[in-house]
Design goal:
332 residues; alpha+beta; Nucleoside Triphosphate Pyrophosphohydrolase; Arc Repressor Mutant, subunit A; 3 domains; seven-stranded mixed sheet
Length: 332
């Protein structure tokens, strides 16, 4: 029989296989041709307050994971979510989250798309351009300025091992992710690029996920995020870039009516590439993705343009309607 004194002296230790389950949301909007993610300020032991994603623990009053996520997002940001899909479950062996009491932390991540940027709600919540965190992913203005520096460091990392087989494997990965060593850039490999930078020790999160960075490094390696939230964001961007090619999810980000120019800018913002105007419009017409309305823009800043809307019948007409992207010629 255990006495009250013994109970007081003996700390409660969680079983070795115990885990805390958290919920985290990547909430995306596209406004004025820029992709934005909703962030909150999170406290960290080493870095003070850092940008993070809306998140919270799964608690007994949440009947489902998704309803729990929606509750946390609304509480933290005053956002009511529409389109939501489960993204991934993050549960590396050495992963611990905030306030888990030393428990292994599992995070179930979701991707949410909203049609417009509503006010963030709390002072700690704000909309941020997602290329603030992953600047090497934005090719719309040409080759990103950060890439030459990153590539030089990655090549040095690959060549800095004595084992020829390991060096070859690293070079192969550089080709698959960053298009080096004879490879080609694939805009969907956002997560692979981030994880390679992490493994090479080229981003602050690789140093214990502290989220600390020198100001002069941020234009190259991006603004860090709390915990592993930049990894979660990279996963969401890669998923969305792939999905817009075979599902019309981009229309979840558009207002009820819009111009073809606005639609093109949104697709370019998400994919990080420039698209040929006439080829894009031909693709939209061939796929039957939109239909014209009677409305036109005011023409206050230029020639009036016809307003169109998403044609929902396309969902019944073909199994994989989407944008088969053909980027404009990319600089070497």
């Amino acid at each position: 029989m255990t006495t009250a004194e013994e109970t007081e002296r003996t700390p409660e230790v969680a079983p070795a296989n115990s885990s805390a389950v958290g919920l985290v949301a990547v909430i995306v909007a596209a406004t004025d041709g820029e992709p934005r993610a909703l962030t909150v300020q999170l406290s960290g032991q080493a870095s003070g307050r850092s940008d993070g994603l809306p998140a919270g623990p799964l608690v007994p009053e949440h009947p489902t994971l998704e309803r729990g996520l929606r509750a946390w997002v609304e509480r933290q940001t005053h956002q009511r979510l529409g389109y939501v899909e489960q993204l991934y479950t993050f549960g590396d062996r050495d992963r611990q989250g905030e306030d888990t009491g030393g428990l292994h932390s599992l995070s179930v991540a979701y991707l949410a798309l909203v049609r417009e940027m509503r006010p963030a709600g709390l002072a700690e919540a704000s909309w941020r351009n997602w290329y603030r965190y992953l600047p090497w992913e934005d090719w719309r203005a040409g080759r990103p300025e950060s890439l030459p520096v990153i590539e030089g460091k990655l090549l040095a990392w690959a060549e800095g091992v004595g084992d020829p087989k390991l060096r070859r494997r690293r070079e192969d990965r550089l080709g698959l992710t960053f298009g080096l060593c004879g490879g080609a850039w694939n805009e969907e490999r956002v997560l692979e690029r981030y994880e390679l930078l992490f493994e090479a020790g080229l981003i602050p999160e690789a140093q214990g996920q502290s989220g600390i960075a020198h100001e002069h490094d941020i234009p190259v390696t991006g603004q860090p995020m709390a915990l592993d939230h930049r990894r979660v964001l990279a996963t969401a961007i890669g998923r969305l870039r792939g999905k817009i090619k075979y599902r019309p999810v981009v229309f979840e980000l558009m207002p009820p009516t819009f111009t073809l120019f606005q639609l093109q800018r949104t697709v370019e913002a998400l994919s990080g590439t420039n698209l040929h105007k006439q080829n894009f419009r031909r693709l939209v017409a061939q796929q039957g993705l939109v239909e014209e309305t009677d409305g036109v823009t005011s023409g206050a800043t230029g020639r009036p343009a016809r307003l169109v809307r998403f044609r929902r019948e396309v969902l019944l007409e073909r199994p994989a309607p989407g944008f088969r992207l053909r980027p404009a010629r990319r600089p070497a």
